[in-house]
Amino acid sequence: MFELRGAGVVLGGVRILSPIDLAIPAGRFVALLGRNGSGKSTLLSLLARQLAPSEGALAFAGQPIEERQPREFARRVGWLPQHPPEAATMTVVEVARMGRYPWRGAFMRHDVRDARAVATALAQVGLADMGERAMASLSGGERQRAWLAMLLAQEPSCLLLDEPTAALDLKHQMEVLRLLASLRDRRRLTIVMAIHDVGMALRFADHLIALKAGRPVFVGPPEAIQRAGVLSAIYDLPIGTLQAAEAGPPIVYPL
Ligand SMILES: Nc1ncnc2c1ncn2[C@@H]1O[C@H](COP(=O)(O)OP(=O)(O)OP(=O)(O)O)[C@@H](O)[C@H]1O
């Protein structure tokens, strides 16, 4: 879906991402791991076209990304930054409706398909009954889910998500991650998600990319990252894994 060839980022004279070769496969649920400041958000911004590479090339679906029409790109790729704007005076449904801009434009009337996409998105994130609430009145987790609804209403084929579960309780983390996994399975969505919870990444993602100081130090399946010493090297911390009695991914814990 995305291919970086020697693509790197320098901001204000500071090297943030080394020139890297990296492929993001289509139809996969990719977790971006790495310590604070390792470059996850920068890589997502690059894929979302919020940043241009300082060198090298970046292709989306086989075409140089800069040649894509912005509206066509927005129909195919949805981006949720780590800190979305305040939008305090907007209601939840107004936020979700913004996801339809690439399809309708900001000032065009919404049709039945738009209304259905917005209603489905709100239901998927559990906010169907809160559509008329002002964003300022929501809890942090509810607000995060409203932004996710905007992205789902956009109906893109690729989601770029920067810590989408950071403010969510365990139940809502599970619901959002299950929803994302089911979108990959049912609609073959490509999902690239920065996440700090390694256990959740192992449980839901099927492809992992770990960054360290602006370069990938691990790219591969969840099983491979569990080999002795790999997680410890990524996080510079002795890390153990423990297989619970039930089947499923291991529990990850600092030693
Ligand atoms: N405009 C900028 N100018 C200088 N340095 C920057 C700029 N933007 C980001 N950085 C630095 O680049 C590094 C990577 O930042 P980035 O936000 O991509 O990391 P991250 O892996 O997403 O971190 P976190 O897990 O804390 O969200 C950080 O050290 C950050 O301070």
Structural class, by secondary structure, is alpha/beta
Q: For the CA atoms, what is the radius of gyration?
A: 18 Å
> Which spans of ≥5 residues are poorly predicted at pLDDT below 50?
none
Helix content: 25-40%
Major sheet: arrangement of strands: 6-7-8-3-9-10
Sketch the major β-sheet. 6 strands, mixed
Q: How many β strands by DSSP?
A: 12
Write down the overall mean pLDDT: 92
Subcellular location: Cell membrane
Membrane topology: Peripheral membrane protein
Protein name: ABC transporter ATP-binding protein
Organism: Jiella sonneratiae
Write out key terms for the chains shown.
255 residues, alpha/beta, six-stranded mixed sheet, four-stranded antiparallel sheet, 10 helices, 12 strands, globular, binds adenosine-5'-triphosphate
Q: What does this entry look like structurally?
A:
By secondary structure, the protein is α/β, with parallel strands linked by helices. The chain has 10 helices and 12 strands. The strands form 3 sheets. A 6-stranded mixed sheet has the order 6-7-8-3-9-10, with helices on both faces. It has a 4-stranded antiparallel sheet with strand order 2-1-4-5, covered by helices on one side. Strand 7, helix 7 and strand 8 form a beta-alpha-beta unit. The mean pLDDT is 92. The structure holds adenosine-5'-triphosphate (ATP). Adenosine-5'-triphosphate (ATP) binds next to strand 2 and helix 1. InterPro entries: AAA+_ATPase (IPR003593), ABC_transporter-like_ATP-bd (IPR003439), ABC_transporter-like_CS (IPR017871), P-loop_NTPase (IPR027417), Siderophore_ABC-ATPase (IPR051535). Keywords: ATP-binding, Cell membrane, Ion transport, Iron, Iron transport, Membrane, Nucleotide-binding, Transport. GO terms for molecular function: ATP binding. It comes from Jiella sonneratiae. It is a peripheral membrane protein.
